[in-house]
Automatic annotation (TrEMBL):
Residues 40-122 are annotated as: Disordered. GO terms for molecular function: SNARE binding. This is Autophagy-related protein 14. Keywords: Coiled coil.
Amino acid sequence: MAADSHTRRERPWLLPYNRKIRHLQGITIRNLTLVHAPQRPRGKTIDDDAIPSALRTPTKAVAQRESRRLEHSRSSNDLRPIGEAVVADLSSKEDGGLQDSPPRPLLRTRRRSTMEWSGASPLERQKRLEEVAGGRMADVFFSLHVEAIDDPVYVSEEVEKAMNPNFRFFDLDSWGPSVTRLDAITVKVWVKSEAMKEHQHLLDLTVNFRALQFIGKALDSFHHPFPQNCVLFHFTDGIYTSFTDMSPEEHTIGLSHSSTKTTSGRTDPTSSYDQLMRLSTLDVCIQDALATRDRLASDINGVVETGQDALSMVNQVPEALERVKTIESTVHAQRKRLESAKKKRAELEVSIQSRRDAIKRGREMQEKALEDVLNGQEQLKQREFAIQQTQDEIVGQRRRVCEDLLKIYPIEPIPGRSLAFTIRGLPLPNSEFDNVKEDVTAAALGFVAQAVAQIAVYFSHPPPYPITPRGSTSTIEDPISMTTGPRVYPLYMRGSVRYRFEYGVFLLNKDIEILSNSIGLKLLDIRQTLPNLKYLLYVATAGKGDIPARKAGGFRALLRYPGLSRSLSNSSSINSTANSAVLAEGKGEGGAKADKGGVVIGNGVSTTPSFKMQRTSALRG
C-alpha cells in the first residue's frame, strides 16, 4: 500500500501537451564529459546473442560461468598474458590425465596491474587523483534559445570546476506569452577546462517538452545512472530528461514495426473482412454527415446574409431602448448632483458671510489693540523710567544700609597678623579654633550671624541656610543635606559637639559666599569669614554719587490710622537718636567687652538685635 501511494506521488500532473516554457524553472547537468569515449565496435546487433542457434548464448554463458574454477589474481606476481597461462595449464592437464571441463576462451583481458599505486606516497596518490578529476571538471554555463528570437532568452551564471553543475532557478515570464507558451527550447552548453584558453561550445540540444521523460520529484529518488552530458529540466511538477532523441509516441511506433521483423513464429491478430467493411461503411456515413453539415451551414449563412438589414433593425430597437434608459438614469443622477451642489453652495455662502463678519470684528479689535499699544508705549517708557529710578534708589539705600552695617559692626585688621580681623574689637580666627577663647569666639560669630542675616534681608536674597541670631548663642539650620538627627547647628563652642560647631561655621561661610555671588563677587577661600564679610560690605557700599540720607518717617500706610502715626514717628526718632549715641560712645571707648557669662555687652547696644526691626528698616528704606 505504501509503495502504491509513493508511486502516485511520483506521477507528474502536467500532461505532455501542457508542458510549456512558463513551467520551466531550472536546468542542471549530470555526468559532464568533455571528450566522448569511443564505443567498442560491434560486428553484430545487440540481440544476436539471444538466437538459440548462436555459438554463445546467455544460457550457455551462465553454464560456463558455473563450471569455472576459482583462480588466483595475477595482477602483481604474474605478468604473462592470460592466453599463455591458459595454454600452460592445459598442457599440464594433458600430461596428468583427461580434461574434466571444456577449455575456456583464450581472448580474455587480464585485470590491470596496480603495482605502481601500491607503493606510491599519499601525496603522489592525491596528485594523481586530482589530475584524473581535474581532467573531467570544467567551468560551465548554458544559454536558452527559442525560435524567431536571435538573442538568447536566458544566460545562466558560470559554475566553476564541476562535473555535475547545479544552476540557479530562473523565471522567463518577463518575455511574455510569445515565449512562455512555446513547448520547445534549445539549450547550448559552454565549457572551459584548465587546458582551454576560452569557452567552447560543448552541447547544442533542441528538445520538445512532449518528448521528455519524468524521473521524479527530486534527484534523490532516482537511482539509475545518467548518460554522458545529461541535461535535466526542472518543471513545476518534477524533473524531466530526454534519454532518446525522439518522442515516446514515435519510439513506441518504431518498436511495433521492429517487432514484426523478429524471427519468432508468433502471429498477431487482425480485423476480419466483415469488420473492415463495417468500418468502410461507417466512414462513408461520417463523410456524408460532414458534407450535409457543411451544406446546412452554408445555407444558414446565406439566409442570415440576405436578412441582415431586417435583423439589424430588430437588434437596434432594444439597443436604443437600453441607451434611452441609460441616458435617463444619467440625467437623474446629474439632477441629484446639481441639487447637492446648490445646497453646498448655499452653505458655503453662509459660511463665507459669517467669516467676513468675524474678520470685520477682528480688524476692529486689532485697530483698538493697536491704539492701546501706541498709548501703552508712552506709559511703558514712563514705567521703565520709574523702575530704573526706583532701582537706583534701592541701590543707594543698600549702599547706605551697608555703610551703616560697617559702622555698627566694624571689621578691623589685627596689626602684625596676615588676614586676621576683629569685629567690634573681638578677634575671630579663620576656621581654626584651637587655643581660642570660647566666649569671645561665640560673641564674634554672633555679630557675624547678625550682620549676615541683615544683609540677606536688605539684598532680598534669603540665605539657603537660615540663621537664628541670638548673640553668643546663635544657631544655623541645614534644611538641604540628607542627614538624620537635628538639623540646627550651634555657632558657639561651649556645651556643643566640636564637629557640629565647625559644620555650623562652614554653613555660615557658605551663606557669605552665596550673598557675595549674588552681587557678582567670587571668593577665593570661604574659610576666611571676616575678610570675606568685609569684602562683601566694602563692594556693596561702592557706587556712583553720594550715599543718600535716611528718609524720615515710618510706613505711610500706617498714617491712615489715628494715634499710630505719632507713636511710630516718635519711636523712629528715638531709635535713630539711640543709634547715633551708641556709635559715638563706641568710637570713644573703642569697642565692646565680654562678661564672665559669655554675653557680650556693647555699651548701650542690644546684643540680640531684632530681625523684624531690620526687615522694617529695609521696608522704610
